[in-house]
Write a structure and sequence with these properties.
Elements: E1 6-9, H1 22-30, E2 33-36, H2 39-49, E3 55-57, H3 63-75, E4 80-83, H4 96-104, E5 108-111, H5 117-125, E6 132-137, H6 142-152, E7 158-163, H7 168-179, E8 185-189, E9 197-201, H8 203-212, E10 221-225, H9 230-236, H10 240-252, H11 255-266, H12 270-280
Helix pairs in contact: 3-4, 6-7, 7-8, 10-11, 11-12
Bound molecules: S-adenosylmethionine.
Amino acid sequence: MAEQGILYIVPTPIGNLGDITERAIKTLTEVAAIAAEDTRHTRKLMQHYGIQNEVFALHEHNETQRADAVIERLQQGDSLALVSDAGTPLINDPGYVLVHRCHQQGLNVIALPGACAVTVALSAAGLPTDRFAFEGFLPAKPQQRRAKLEQLQSETRTVVVYESPHRILHTLADMDITLGKERNVVLARELTKQFETYLSGNAAELLQRLTDDKNQQRGEMVLLIAPLQPEIEAHTGPGEATKRTLLLLLDELPLKKAAALTAKIHDERKNRLYQWALENKNSQ
Ligand code: SAM
């Protein structure tokens, strides 16, 4: 039986064409073929680096169906590379289905290190990096987005989210409501490109900056939310939706039970809600 091929996960630049490794170019040249999110986009990139190779499409709409053919090829001994339009495949890009199936089939998957907007933004944003949470894109629907931000309100790690220029103003407005004025947010825009910018402040301040300068609303962007500090936590109390639930339940239940149920519903800490209810139940 022929030796099985390897699936290489190959990152490509997120803007600056200099951000590709020698190893990535060598791999893309030497594999039997390249699976690409958008073949036209990848061919242009290959032309720039002087790479000639077969390219076929593997994107979110055909990944499940294509994965079988890719696996068959790997089993027959062809090594293949997976690339997305920009940055690291699988990071908010196609590839998970294929990689998962490769593992199920005992096929070897090797990932090359390279450009990724999450790590670039984190490295320079000036927020804690020892632990962080990546949330991909926030929900597009306002109600769901606010609910997600309510959850993130008590997050004690730096939170990284991808954002689109169409939604940035709405998201910042929602962040102002849910995270308040004490919480620092960083907007990392156009990373590795000519107009690379980092803006830092609370959500209301960033919203003002972007409203004053429409150029700051353009391009590709990452938002980072500073971790909740215990002293800020005590000061700000739970989010608005959490407080509403707690106050409603307090009309019907003893304080301890109301705090416990609200904690479950909103994924909050019970003691924090208990404390808040003790301090506020008579003044609301
Ligand atoms: N796989 C990619 C990676 O490794 O970063 C991410 C793909 S995701 C579909 C695209 C999103 O990543 C953009 O909408 C933006 O939020 C973020 N992004 C990609 N390139 C960026 C850049 N140069 N500057 C800021 N954000 C970027």
